[in-house]
Every structure is written in structure tokens, then in C-alpha cells.
């Protein structure tokens, strides 16, 4: 019962209420002294009631006060994790999940859900003792378990050596915790997919000829991956539809409906073909899945009239004969990558330079071409590209003095700019240019040295300057020695964040600051950073959590932190060292991988260290742009590199992914939830 002022007054005899009202009238007050006293008492009663209600709420994790959360966690033995995944960033939610998990402790389902929650990656739990060849007990026969694989079961054979491999094995006595042993009685495997499936929506396919197309806007072969069907509450073990898995031809042929979008529910792939926007979607009945590999000067298995062929392994599309010459093709598809880097249909709204109140000129709604929109700005403002289209243009930007121009992709889009010539960037005194969310191919960006060019700031966010400008069908860079950006004027400050960049040529008087970027010269012996001549020292270079592939020659390194610099000298190379800072008395290199021959400022906690007898091993899964695991450290890399950053994280561009911390979270939880007598191993599917 709640006791407010009126409730307390009603409990008094009418005599006292009438007399108190008379006193209030005589004194000209709204309330008498008795009513005011009861009001004070009612306030204190309300405080007590609120406290009692909060005590009741504090018994439940969903409603308790923030200060109670750690006490409830302590009651159930909750251990704090690194807040690097969304579901463990909030301690209240994590404690609530812990209570729910304890009810299913020790089951494969809860181990799989734990792995998903604490790492934020797709995961699959595998009980290897269920896939072990054993002598069977006749009262409990496992009729599906065969010592020899059934070669007629194509699907089982397609998953060999993956998380979904169901073919039994003989016993493996090596410890699974080391990551080498697998099939044994006490073994549980946790397979993780650190690569995510990034969508492309309505992306224009690249034309090879009237019938042959590629889904990649850069016109190179790219494997398509499954759009994972995620589940908040796991009711079954993961299947290939729940992870970032490359789509095979046979499996998509047999289960086309699982991968091809036919209604409002988006799946992995959808094809649109026509001549008038919006292009109509191709019906499922007209889709054929087949091998479109090279066959001489053409592709194999081009479809007959009325049918459209898709090759998910190569990312190729073949159209039927007889379509109009102006036919266009667009595709919804997913590609695999390891981080929000270099542009994509991920959340970028927080990185926009101009405030949200600024009204941009939109392409293609307000202007059909990007250059027309840039010209219409009049020296200041924003141009926003509102689709993931493919634009072939020759571009230039000219900013008015003390103004800023931002050219950006709308949030949730990644347009491709195919440059027909140099992209010139100019500005008046104290001006700035910002590029955001763009994939730029075909040529380089240039800040030319002209008398009128006084541009002071160039800011790149979530952009890709394709290393090597363009790619061949197999992903080989076509202009491997060409830089992606020329900065020819002094006093310019170049800043890049979450970008993939080709080589940089920066005049000595300028400054470059790179954060969470890949700087790629396309080969270890090519030049990633230098002056305009590709040999002399360039401007000062700052790297924070970056991976630089190729030689560097800078005036100074003010700060290199949590980065990987991988370079080598070529045959008859004129450089004295692969990494050179002209002023080694300035700056610092800390918590980074730097070649032993590098000429850098003083190093702090870098590898290799002074002890050359224990040189760490540096291994990458891939160093070619366009691959899913581009610039990703391999599992064979030394722990000193994989855990050598200042926060015990990974050196290099994927430092912000916090892979070691995610793995630590999982190992902490496995100690709590793994059944007695079992041992777990963690395996990465890359």
C-alpha cells in the first residue's frame, strides 16, 4: 500500500482536518501545518517504499541496480571477460546469459553458443569422439558410423577437413589443446570463422562480353560465400548455412533454394538482368549452377536460351544468347573478409566528416555522374553516392579557400570508381578534402604541385586505392609498381583511417598519418612509401596498427606502434636497407615487427629483438589484395607477433579486431563449461 499525503490525511478524524484547514485559511496558506507535516512524512515513506521495491528488483539480474551486478556475478562464479564482442560488452547481459548457460552446462549446444557469444564469430562445436572409428557394442549400434567412407555420398566428401567433416577417422593421440590432435575420445573441437560475410547489394557485374560477366566490380574472379543464418538461441549444431563458408557448385546446385534469394528474405545470392531500372530479379527456375571455368577463348558450359548460369566458386555469371546489346546485370552477393576495412556495406555513419545537418548532393538522384555533382558544389559541401554502383569517370576536386569538400558513399553502400585518368585534388588556402567509403581503381590520386594548389588536409576513411590499380582475372595486379597516391605539395597533412592503400609517394615537406591501414606495394621488394622519384626520402610517416608491405623511406618516423613492416631488398637493389628513416634521432618504434636491417629510431619491445638466435616467424595467410584473408596473420606466426601489441593483442592492421582477446574469452569460458574429462581445441577456418 502506498501512503501519500492525502492518504495519511484521510486516516485522521475529520475534526483535525477541519481545524487544520481553518488555520491555513487564517494564515493565507495553501496547506495547514498538520498537512505540511504529513507531507514530509509521506515523502520519507515514499523513500522507504522505493528502497523496498529496489531490494526486490535487486534479486533479479534483469532489474537490479548497476552496483549489484558484480555481486550477483560473484555468487555464480562469473569471471570478467574482455569486452570485444557485442554480447560480452555489457556485464549485466553476460551475467544473465551465464545463468541460462549453466542450465545446459556440458552440452555441445551450449559450447557452440558460448563460442559465438564470447568471440562474436560464427562457430561450430564438434564432438570428435562421435567421429572416431571404434569397435561397436552390438546393443548400441551406430549404423551411420562406417570405417570406410561411402564414396557415393558427395556432400560428406565435399566437407573433408572442415568443421562439417563427418567421415570417421582412426584415433589421433596428439593433444587437441595444441591444435594438432583431433580425433580422440576426450576431444571437443571449437571451429571459429574470423572472416565475416560482407554483403554487396545491387552491385553492377563487370562485363566481359555480351554473355560473360563477373560479380566483382573489379572484374576478377572472387568466390561467393554463404550469408550465415544466425540464431540468438541455438537449438541445433551449426551447419554450413550458419557460417562463412565458400559455396560449392554441387551443393548450390542441389540446394539452390537455400542460397538463392526468391522473396523478401535475403539469402546468399540474387541476380538481376534487364535494360531498364529497376532491373528485374531472375526467377529461381531460370537459374543454373555450373562450372564456368576457362575453355580456350571462352568459358565452359554457357547456358542455353532462357537460362542464366552462376558459378559460385569463381564468381562468374553467364547470360543466355539473344539478349539486347544494352542488357545490364546486377548481383546481390557476399564476399569474405576479416574486418571493417577499405569500404563496404557496414556501419560508417560515425566517420562522416561533415555534420548530419549538411544536405549533400546525391548521386545518381540529383546528378547522374560524380563529376557533375562535384562541379555543382561550387567549392564546398558534400557529394554522397547512394548506391553500390560502378562509375567510370575522370574526376577532379577543387575546394575553395578555408572550405571542405567530402566525397563519400552513403552509409550501407560501397560504390566502385573506375578512373579513366588521374584523380586530381586541389584546394585553396587552409582547405580540406575528405573521401569516405570508396573503392577506387584504374588510376591514382594526385595532389599536383601548382601555384594555386594550397590544399592543407587530405583525409581518407574506409577507402580502397586498389594496389596495382587494376586486377587480372586471377587477381594479379596489372600495374604493380604504380603508386596509388602522389602528394606533390609540401605542408599537406595526409591522414588515412581503416583504408587499403597502394604505394604512396609523398614529397618531403608533407606528412602522412595512417591508422588501421594496409599499405601495399604488391611485393616485399617494391616501394610502399618514398618521395616522388620513388627513391628519395618522403615526408614523415606515422603508423598506428598498420601492415606495410614493401620498402619505406621517410624523413622520420614520429611514431610506429602495433604495426608490421615487412620488406626486403631485391637483387642489385640501390637501397641501403628495406626500411629507412633519415632522422633516426627523432621518433619511436614500439611493439612492432621491423626487419633486422631496418634503419629506424630507437625500438621498444619490437620483434625481432636483440636476441637474433630466437628470431620470430612471420607468416601471412595471404598478401594478395582481393583474397579473403588478405594481410591476415597465419596461425604459424610466432606468438611474439600474434600477441605482441601493447595490449597483448595482434600486431598489424587487424589489431582492432582483438583476435587474441576473443580467444582468451573463449578459453576462460571453456574452463567453466567443459564436461569433466574432456579437452577442447580451437581451430580457425580461414
Low-pLDDT runs: none
Radius of gyration: 31 Å
Largest sheet: 11 strands, parallel
Give the CA-based shape.
globular
The strand line-up of the biggest sheet is 13-14-17-20-23-26-29-32-35-38-39
Cα separation of the termini: 62 Å
**What percent of residues are in strands?**
15-25%
Count all strands and give the number: 40
**Helix fraction?**
10-25%
Number of domains: 4
Average pLDDT taken over every residue: 91
> Total number of helical segments?
12
What class do helices, strands and sheet pairing give? alpha/beta
How would you characterize this protein structure?
The protein has 686 residues and is α/β, with parallel strands linked by helices. It has four domains: 5-57; 77-194 and 662-684, no CATH class; 200-337, no CATH class; 349-608. The strands form eight sheets. It has an eleven-stranded parallel sheet with strand order 13-14-17-20-23-26-29-32-35-38-39, covered by helices on one side.
Give a quick precis of the structure.
With 686 residues, the chain is an alpha/beta fold. The mean pLDDT is 91.
List the SSEs and their pairings.
Layout: H1 5-10, H2 14-27, H3 33-57, H4 69-75, H5 91-102, H6 108-119, E1 122-127, H7 154-158, E2 187-193, E3 196-204, E4 206-207, E5 212-214, H8 249-254, H9 256-259, E6 270-274, E7 287-289, E8 294-295, E9 298-299, E10 308-311, E11 316-318, E12 328-337, E13 361-363, H10 370-376, E14 381-385, E15 390-393, E16 396-399, E17 404-409, E18 416-419, E19 423-427, E20 431-436, E21 439-441, E22 445-447, E23 455-461, E24 464-465, E25 485-487, E26 493-497, E27 500-501, E28 504-506, E29 511-515, E30 518-520, E31 527-530, E32 540-544, E33 547-549, E34 551-554, E35 557-561, E36 564-566, E37 579-581, E38 587-590, E39 603-604, H11 639-642, H12 659-673, E40 679-684
Helix pairs in contact: 6-12
Amino acid at each position: 500500500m502506498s501512503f501519500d499525503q492525502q492518504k495519511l490525511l484521510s486516516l485522521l478524524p475529520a475534526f483535525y482536518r477541519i481545524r487544520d484547514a481553518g488555520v491555513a485559511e487564517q494564515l493565507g496558506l495553501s496547506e495547514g501545518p498538520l498537512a505540511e507535516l504529513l507531507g514530509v512524512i509521506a515523502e520519507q515513506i515514499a523513500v522507504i517504499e522505493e528502497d523496498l521495491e529496489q531490494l526486490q528488483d535487486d534479486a533479479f539480474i534483469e532489474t537490479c541496480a548497476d552496483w549489484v551486478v558484480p555481486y550477483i556475478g560473484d555468487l555464480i562464479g562469473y569471471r570478467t571477460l574482455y569486452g570485444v564482442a557485442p554480447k560480452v560488452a555489457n556485464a549485466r547481459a553476460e551475467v544473465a546469459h551465464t545463468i541460462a548457460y549453466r542450465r545446459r552446462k556440458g552440452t555441445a549446444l551450449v559450447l557452440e553458443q558460448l563460442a559465438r557469444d564470447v568471440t562474436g564469430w560464427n562457430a561450430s562445436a564438434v564432438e570428435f569422439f562421435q567421429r572416431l572409428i571404434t569397435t561397436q557394442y552390438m546393443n548400441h549400434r551406430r549404423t551411420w558410423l562406417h570405417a570406410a567412407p561411402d564414396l557415393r555420398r558427395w556432400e560428406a566428401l565435399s566437407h573433408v577437413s572442415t568443421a562439417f567433416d563427418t567421415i570417421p577417422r582412426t584415433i589421433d593421440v596428439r593433444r587437441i589443446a595444441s591444435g594438432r590432435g583431433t580425433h580422440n575420445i576426450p576431444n571437443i573441437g571449437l571451429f571459429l570463422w574470423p572472416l565475416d560475410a560482407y554483403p554487396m547489394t545491387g552491385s553492377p557485374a563487370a562485363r566481359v562480353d555480351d554473355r560473360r560477366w563477373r560479380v566483382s566490380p573489379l572484374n576478377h574472379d572472387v568466390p561467393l560465400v554463404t550469408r550465415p543464418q544466425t540464431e540468438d538461441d541455438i537449438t541445433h549444431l551449426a551447419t554450413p548455412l550458419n557460417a562463412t563458408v565458400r559455396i560449392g557448385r554441387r551443393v548450390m546446385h542441389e540446394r539452390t533454394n537455400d542460397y538463392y534469394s526468391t522473396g523478401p528474405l535475403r539469402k546468399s545470392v540474387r541476380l538481376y538482368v534487364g535494360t531498364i531500372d529497376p532491373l528485374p530479379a531472375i526467377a529461381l527456375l531460370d537459374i543454373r549452377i555450373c562450372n564456368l571455368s576457362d575453355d580456350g577463348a571462352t568459358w565452359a558450359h554457357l547456358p542455353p536460351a532462357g537460362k542464366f548460369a552462376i558459378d559460385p566458386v569463381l564468381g562468374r555469371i553467364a547470360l543466355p544468347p539473344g539478349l539486347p546489346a544494352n542488357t545490364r546485370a546486377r548481383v546481390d552477393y557476399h564476399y569474405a573478409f576479416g574486418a571493417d576495412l577499405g569500404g563496404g556495406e557496414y556501419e560508417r555513419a560515425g566517420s562522416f566528416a561533415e555534420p548530419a545537418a549538411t544536405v549533400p548532393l546525391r548521386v545518381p538522384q540529383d546528378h547522374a555522374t560524380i563529376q557533375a555533382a562535384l562541379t555543382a558544389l561550387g567549392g564546398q559541401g558534400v557529394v554522397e553516392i547512394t548506391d553500390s554502383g560502378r562509375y567510370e569517370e575522370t574526376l577532379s576536386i577543387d575546394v575553395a579557400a578555408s572550405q571542405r569538400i567530402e566525397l563519400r558513399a552513403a552509409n550501407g553502400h560501397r560504390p566502385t570508381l573506375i578512373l579513366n585518368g588521374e584523380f586530381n585534388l586541389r584546394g585553396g588556402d587552409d582547405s580540406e578534402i575528405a573521401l569516405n567509403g570508396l573503392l577506387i581503381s584504374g588510376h591514382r590520386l594526385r595532389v599536383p604541385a601548382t601555384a594555386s594548389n594550397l590544399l592543407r588536409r587530405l583525409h581518407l576513411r574506409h577507402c580502397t586505392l586498389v594496389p596495382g590499380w587494376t586486377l587480372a582475372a586471377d587477381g594479379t595486379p596489372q600495374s604493380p609498381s604504380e603508386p596509388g597516391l602522389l602528394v606533390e605539395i609540401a605542408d599537406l597533412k595526409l591522414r588515412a583511417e581503416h583504408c587499403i592503400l597502394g604505394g604512396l609517394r609523398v614529397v618531403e615537406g608533407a606528412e602522412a598519418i595512417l591508422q588501421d591501414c594496409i599499405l601495399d606495394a604488391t611485393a616485399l621488394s617494391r616501394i610502399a612509401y618514398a618521395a616522388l622519384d620513388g627513391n628519395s626520402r618522403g615526408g614523415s610517416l606515422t603508423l598506428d596498427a598498420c601492415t606495410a608491405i614493401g620498402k619505406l623511406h621517410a624523413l622520420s618516423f614520429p611514431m610506429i606502434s602495433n604495426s608490421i613492416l615487412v620488406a626486403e631488398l631485391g637483387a642489385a637493389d640501390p637501397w641501403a636497407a628495406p626500411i629507412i628513416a633519415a632522422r633516426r634521432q627523432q621518433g619511436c618504434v614500439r611493439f612492432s615487427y621491423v626487419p633486422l636491417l631496418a634503419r629506424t629510431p630507437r625500438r621498444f619491445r619490437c620483434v625481432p629483438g636483440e636476441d637474433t638466435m630466437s628470431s620470430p616467424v612471420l607468416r601471412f595467410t595471404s598478401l594478395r589484395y582481393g583474397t579473403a584473408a588478405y594481410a591476415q596473420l597465419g596461425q604459424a606466426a610466432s606468438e611474439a607477433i600474434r600477441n605482441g601489441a601493447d595490449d597483448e593483442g595482434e600486431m598489424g592492421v587487424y589489431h582492432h579486431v582483438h583476435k587474441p582477446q576473443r580467444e582468451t574469452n573463449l578459453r576462460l569460458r571453456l574452463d567453466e563449461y567443459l564436461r569433466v574429462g574432456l579437452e577442447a581445441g580451437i581451430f580457425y577456418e580461414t
